[in-house]
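Would you mind writing out the residues of a protein together with its fold in token form for me to study?
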Amino acid sequence: MNDPVSDDPHSRGGPPTYRQPGAAEPSHAERTRTLLAGSTDGTLATIALDPAGHPFGSIVTFAVDADGAPLILMSSMAEHARNLDADCRASLLVSATGEGAGRLAAARATLVGEVHPVPEAEQERATQTYLDTHPAAFWARFPDFAVRRLGVSAIRYVRGFGEMSWVDVAGYPTAKPDPVAPAEAGIVAHMNADHGESLVEMTRAFLDVPGSIGEVSMLSCDRYGFEVQIAVDDHPEGHEVAFGRIGFGEPLQAADEARTAMVELVRQARAA
């Protein structure tokens, strides 16, 4: 289940959301691990030496280690490296794609902690982890470049309007990136283009939506299930749009299991 939404006024009011009983969804720790696994750059904020004490933002590229900690390659001549040498406190903002104002609806996470150089004995392994993500970064072997690690002590995750929390940092290192994420866009596009009626059938069977259900479109898909947007007529509270969450029978272990899971849900919906 999701971490609790905290102090967010957008979570009150607006279109209703209906959940299939027992349907699970990724925790915000899992969503953050998935976001970082699919990202290669972010904005690093350090505490400036000049002008002293001000936040200083830099675009950096990173990889992620086994515990989900960002490994950031930087030159000792970079301004943010000089800042970190004086004060190791920093944060890294990583965001999903979006354009213009739409970026405010995109998922993002701010990881807060301390940035320290990776010990010399571990530097080669860390550099190779970075190069596995950025194979064209030939400068990684230049003598003034080295990998530093952000030790994560706090995480703020925002999925968009109405869903945000401080992530369970203790559970973050063991959270797993979603195996469906690399194929999610294709799954969503395929379902909306070719299986709109099946989405309507599943919504009618599994979600207790009052009123008449019209068009249904898939919004997202993950290892636990998927989310839909529902056009509603004659809703008792006057809503014309609603959202829903439908769960798979078992969490998926690979993206190619999504088709079988969808077929089974449609079968169950038609048998209901």
In short: The two ends are 26 Å apart (CA to CA). Helices lie at 28-37, 79-86, 120-133, 184-194, 196-206, 258-271.
